[in-house]
Amino acid sequence: MLVTALLTAMVAVSGCQDGDANSKDPADEDAAGSSCSQVLSAQAKAAMLRLADVPASAKADYVGDPRRTADQLAAQYLTGRADETGLSFCGAYAGSSGPASVEVQFSLSRALPRKRAAAADFKEYRMGKAALVGAKTAFLYFDCSSSKFDGTTQLIRGEVRTTYEDTEPPAVAREDHLRVLHDSSRVLSGLLGCGQGSGITGAFTMPPAV
Fold this sequence. Notes:
Blueprint: H1 2-22, H2 26-33, H3 36-39, H4 42-51, E1 60-63, H5 66-79, E2 87-94, E3 102-109, H6 115-119, E4 123-125, E5 130-133, E6 137-145, E7 153-162, H7 170-192
Antiparallel strand pairs: 1-2, 2-3, 3-7, 4-5, 5-6, 6-7
């Protein structure tokens, strides 16, 4: 009887271990699915690499956790500690170059930039609430109405910044800046559960200049 009981227990334990080895924790899958290299489109990632001046033949690495960024923005609002310091969303660099050569950040913003201040250094486009593209950086502002903001509408600012001067033709670089911002903002909007009307939920098309 004792031997039979022991054998039965060993089989049960072995079965549980096999099952654990073959099963995946949904939380682990969610964590893996939240890396920026997985959530951004192939076109947006290619644009990031062009902005970072990473050759197509080089190995590219990505850093960032979009889901964590969304959670941090919601926490900033709920705790009343929101500021305009950018939270890292995604970065890319060549495998041998170290820190990200191009990075996307998001923050909660109090207001749109003043027209006069933006006009000198940036070209403005009709995307979201406002889109501004400069030589090494670009900004996209959009509204987000979400239960994570207690149902209020918050103004979110996205920023993409490059370490090096753009080597692309100016028109191509501006489109790449906007594509990266649009795709990143679309992902963030989904993670926050933003309602319709932000102007960044559809597929990217190059917007007209203001």
